[in-house]
Amino acid sequence: MKQQKLQEIYPTSSIHAFPTVDTDYLSIAVAHGFLWIPQKNLSPTEKKLLQAIAITNPATIPTAGKERPWYAALFSDTSAPADEGAFRLIQIKCHALEKNDLAALHEEMSTILPHTVDLFFLSESYGIIVESFSEDALTTEELEGLFLALDSDFNSYTRLFSGAFHSFEANFTQLLFEEEQLFLYLLEHDTQTKSFDMGTAIIPFFAIHDVTKSYLMRTLFAEWFDAELEQIICTLWQTQGNISSAAKELFMHRNTLQYKVDKFQQRSNTNLKKMDDLFLCYLLVLSCELLAT
Q1: What is the CATH number that goes with domain 63-206?
Q2: Quick one: which of 93, 126, 128, 263 has the fewest CB in 10 Å?
Q3: Which residues 6+ apart lie within 8 Å of 133 measured at CB?
Q4: Tens of pLDDT along 241-277?
């Protein structure tokens, strides 16, 4: 049965990239993930029918995952295990790997991503990397190159979503849920692209979803902008990202504007020369009054 039809029948269900060990839900494998259907909404007959096509065995999720430092912060609405700093979530989706290959891939990624603070697989094909902020954080393009090399070593094909860096004070359970939805949407609607980020996700996803209801977007707005930066972003958008033209409009020396833009890009891990990233920032500013409420 198609995912869309199942979601129409069970409107309280939700799509995720991994099966659940929560006995309150039934996990149904669909095209790019798993549909979680609340057990309380199912009659005995429905349960029997769905169990024929469901993945209910929790063995696919390592029980050790619950012992990981960030597990509770990502799945149980608890505080992040840190008292300072910013962190991003990198989701990876690959062909199903054998247990030994997963262990080897886990070790390899821990080595080549030195700022990783936690890393675990929730199924044979889906994993999450938690990375702390650093000035030399890899761009999405650099991450893609890294995973191309890993794919060659492990005879696999990995697709990834690089999330934004967020303050340790943020609700990472909600952030993961929304970034996961972005990733799943892109996996379904873009079969060619290997690596995604907020910039590439923003246009297709929020063309059909209400940006003002997004905790993720509200968090980005609060963490990234002040009044001066809002004005800078609007002017850059109007001048199509041209620093010299924007500086004239702002009555600011070009080098001063460039310095402010560079500092913002370093902090947000964006590249305002890329129209996707510039549009993401412009959308945040454009929706600022609604996002701030």
Answers
A1: 3.30.70
A2: 263
A3: 85, 86, 87, 88, 115, 165
A4: 999 999 999 999 999 999 999 999 999 999 999 999 9
